[in-house]
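HOLO CASE FILE
Compound: uridine-5'-diphosphate-glucuronic acid
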Amino acid sequence: MFARRIAVIGSGYVGLTTGACLASLGHRVVCADVDEAKVERLRRGVVDIVEPGLPELVAENQAAGRLEFVLGARDAVAGRDGDAVEVVFLCVPTPMGEGGAADLAAVRDVAAQVRHLLPAGCVVVNKSTVPVGTAEATRKLLNRRDVAVVSNPEFLREGSAVHDFLHPDRIVVGSDAQDAAERVAALYARLGAPTVLTDAASAEMVKYAANCFLAMKLSYVNALAEMCDVLGADVADVTEGMGHDRRIGQAFLQPGPGWGGSCLPKDTNALVQVAAAAGIELPLVSASIATNERQRRIVVGKIADAVGGSLAGRRIGLLGLTFKAGTDDLRDSPALAVARLLRAGGAELTAYDPGCPAAVPGVTDDVTVADEPLRAAKDADALVVLTEWPQFRSLDWAAVAGALAGRVVVDCRNLLDPDVLRRAGISWVGVGRR
Ligand code: UGA
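Model generated. Tokens follow.
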């Protein structure tokens, strides 16, 4: 039979996307969360996270009876209508813990709650990004010979998670029990994606290896952009020239104010920690983290230059606060890190971000949050683009020029068309651009 009975523990960004997408593939899915209010909202079809297509997918599959929401892991793993759960996905948070390593408390907690309830023959799948060895540790925590543990990392980008789930570049499934790995891979059969079947440790490693590679790629590009600024080259042409080489590819070559978000910073730090604990140095990844920190200071230096050298008492408008466009996520946002440094230099900051329409206490305290872009530009000595929201391209630049006190835009994402700005009487400063 194709349709499987699946429980998903944790209905956050990964769990909810996984649950709704698996249901859309025809499986019968029960999603659990510990947050009662969230479960209530999800039952009513209210999705709290900004993820294109997800609310529709949740509503559609709930209506079709393939997706339901329950409070707590125990209820999710209990069978329905005499049908036992066959696959249990763990999609719980693994935040950065002590010293940068992933904190596995939530995985441990769920394992303790469900271990006696799992039906014989079911498969427990780790979907959260977890250190190598977690599948093995989960197997020991469950201590059930008749339950297999599988690692099946996710590769979903925020803002395109549904698309990424339904059109994956690859599916990676690892287990020391091969039949269990094959059963999990079969859940995705309809997607027709290349599938890597391996052991649990290798599958766990793939996720860190991929995210750290992406982070290294970005740090390399940011360092190249700095060189281009000094040497008079243009990073857009350099990356295009590099990217045509199919071994390199055009994707993920945009310089910026540094990389952030809830994944790359956490995973680079975790891999360095895990390596150190294993007695292995990982200078490439450590240097990428250091380059990322430096990139923020380089950007702040550019902004200081644009306002005459000193930030003290300068009014600076910021366009963008979220860690990338298309999300409301402020976690580890490079824009906020830059704002913190500007503030420390004595600048007064007003920011506009379409994904963050109001102040978030404790998070956006370095800035005054404006509800429209012209307010951020008003009387500013410079306007700075920190997040690559496409709508910034089509701002009314004549009106922006009229609002600015200093007619300069520092475009930390190389997002805008310099000619459009010049025509509006604004000088444009990019990252690594001629
Ligand atoms: C990242 C990975 O891309 C996903 O494959 C992975 O599944 C996910 O982490 C995860 O571990 O769950 P995400 O954190 O959503 O996804 O964000 P990205 O789109 O990768 O962007 C990360 C950062 O790099 C952002 O700050 C973004 O602005 C920056 N970036 C990205 C650049 O500065 N330049 C680029 O060319 C691309």
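CASE NOTES: Residues 208 and 271 are 7 Å apart (CA to CA). The mean pLDDT is 95.
CLOSED: yes
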